[in-house]
Design a protein that fits this description.
1 helix; elongated; 10 strands; single chain; Immunoglobulin-like; four-stranded antiparallel β-sheet
Length: about 160
């Protein structure tokens, strides 16, 4: 009898743990979904070998997105744009550029200046096409944080083809 009671208690404990793990994962997923930036992408073909991407990000109230400029000391993760491994015959033309109201704020926890944008940011990147390349596949990687300091990494796919 004691053996069966112990088995039932272990089973109940296991189910409670699984339930809390699932609930925690759902809460984290909900947080990440609430911390998304709305991106509008526009490509301009300059000539047969050059394409320029402009990405305008609308940042929800209470959130901010970090600059492409890395901090002096390790703290936040700067925004980057990388070509995907399947993107052939394309090179980045220069560095990812940013426009908007850049906020620089000293963070005493990390003992360094953090650079970020609120409300809106525009990232611009040029691409050079070679050979028969007629498509661009890239990923914008950015860290978005709320006012409490909770941060999540986000990505945005960037695709263009003729």
């Amino acid at each position: 009898m004691i053996y069966k009671t112990r088995q039932v208690l272990i089973l109940i404990l296991f189910l409670v743990c699984v339930n809390f793990s699932f609930l925690g994962a759902q809460l984290q997923l909900g947080t990440a979904n609430n911390m998304k930036v709305n991106w509008q992408k526009q490509f301009k073909k300059i000539d047969a070998k050059k394409v320029v991407l402009e990405m305008k990000g609308t940042i929800p109230h209470g959130l901010h997105v970090f600059s492409v400029i890395p901090p002096d000391e390790p703290a936040n993760i700067p925004t980057t744009l990388e070509l995907t491994p399947t993107c052939k015959g394309v090179k980045l033309d220069g560095k990812l550029q940013e426009k908007g109201k850049l906020i620089t704020e000293f963070d005493p926890i990390f003992n360094t200046n953090l650079r970020y944008f609120k409300n809106e940011v525009i990232f611009t990147q040029g691409f050079l096409l070679s050979g028969k390349a007629n498509k661009i596949e890239a990923i914008l990687k950015y860290q978005v944080c709320d006012e409490s300091g909770k941060c999540v990494m986000q990505t945005e796919e960037v695709n263009w083809s003729e």
